[in-house]
Amino acid sequence: MEASGTSPKSKHHWQPNKRQVIFLAVAVMALVLACWWWVSRPRTYRFVGRYPLYHDGNDDLLMGTGLQCCRDGFALRDGKQVFTLRDWRTGAVRWRVTTPKPVLAGWPASFGVPTGLYCGISPDGHTFAAILADGPHTRVRTWRDGKPAGNVLLPVPQQGTNPLMSSPTIMTLDDGRCIVQCIVWQGKEGQTKFNFFIDGDRILAEDRRANTLEFAPDGQTASTRQEMMEVTLRGGAVHFKRRITVPEGIWQLGADGTCIDLTGRIIYISGNSTRLEDADWESFYRTHNGRFVSMMQPEGFRIVELKTGESWEINNRTLVPDYRNCIAESGQYALGRQSAQLLPVRQMIENLAKRIHLPDILPHPNEYIGLYDRKGHLRAHIKQPNEAITWGPSNDGRSIIFYTEKACLLYRW
Description:
Elements: H1 18-40, E1 43-44, E2 46-52, E3 67-70, E4 73-79, E5 82-86, E6 93-98, E7 117-121, E8 127-134, E9 137-144, E10 147-153, E11 158-159, E12 162-163, E13 165-172, E14 178-185, E15 191-199, E16 202-209, E17 214-215, E18 221-223, E19 227-234, E20 237-245, E21 251-254, E22 258-261, E23 265-268, E24 273-275, E25 284-286, E26 292-297, E27 300-305, E28 311-315, E29 326-327, E30 333-339, H2 344-355, E31 367-373, E32 378-383, E33 390-393, E34 399-403, E35 407-412
Parallel strand pairs: 1-32
Antiparallel strand pairs: 2-35, 3-4, 4-5, 5-6, 7-8, 8-9, 9-10, 11-12, 13-14, 14-15, 15-16, 17-18, 18-19, 19-20, 21-22, 22-23, 23-24, 25-26, 26-27, 27-28, 29-30, 30-31, 31-32, 33-34, 34-35
């Protein structure tokens, strides 16, 4: 006799075997690595725009090249008397200044500036100032975000209708002031160096001396060949105190009461000093704001924050020593020129070809500009345009501007 009723259905659960578990783990790890690579891979700069430059044989009218990288944009000369600050992201015009036409009558070529025009822009990009020939006079005009902010005549000694002045320079500060320096000829008395501190329509202070001064980008200190001094303005005169003796040799004056020499010694206006370890460099590059310095090394370069003495390095044997290797104004990023000729694989192939007496079998190497962060990681890169003379990064490193003979080229990632 058969038993009545039905047996319950058995439930089957999937049980992965060991091979499947390993496969899933490897797949997850590969996905994580792929995501990490995608996020951390070096980005490629993309072309944004081309902006023509004006040249008349006097490229030093705007800080030496006709281009200046600032915190909030890049400034360029795009007309005979036209200067423009453009946005780092889009290249759009943030402000534009057209200076008055210089009046050159009374400016002999042996004493005056041939064009009667010399300009400067503040590190943040908001204040623009110009020295202008105005007949027998010398005029300084300033603009703030493209709007007129000051107009003053310099009290320069004159002989008849000819101003006895030469070699004028102007440095513009973030607070809107500017420092004008010039050489004044006074007959048998010889030459005197004049230094003017100007704020809008006012000459705040004036200094006359026989030797030449260099002022820090923030105007807090000045230096001669032998000493660094704290600058104060009082009673219409420039006063100097806290005179600190500086070492002989090549050194660079910075902001925040600092200077540094090629041995890595940082000297503070307070009298203290510190020395960076393993410092032996050949040249300096200082940011426009004077807060950071890059120093060339055999295989890379080091970036130093002068106020704190902190530094970070880029050590990469593919980097080419180049004075154009520069730093963002924020000090967080640096640009370095790389050559594919120095890549290990290429070098190995070229050495092998030479040993077996083969001609050059590889194409001419391209040179790249790489963006590095404070950890020394390559964040972005771009092939160097053949016509590029110099270049500079934005504060965040996302944009790069190339200066050529005819135009500025803006790229961004």
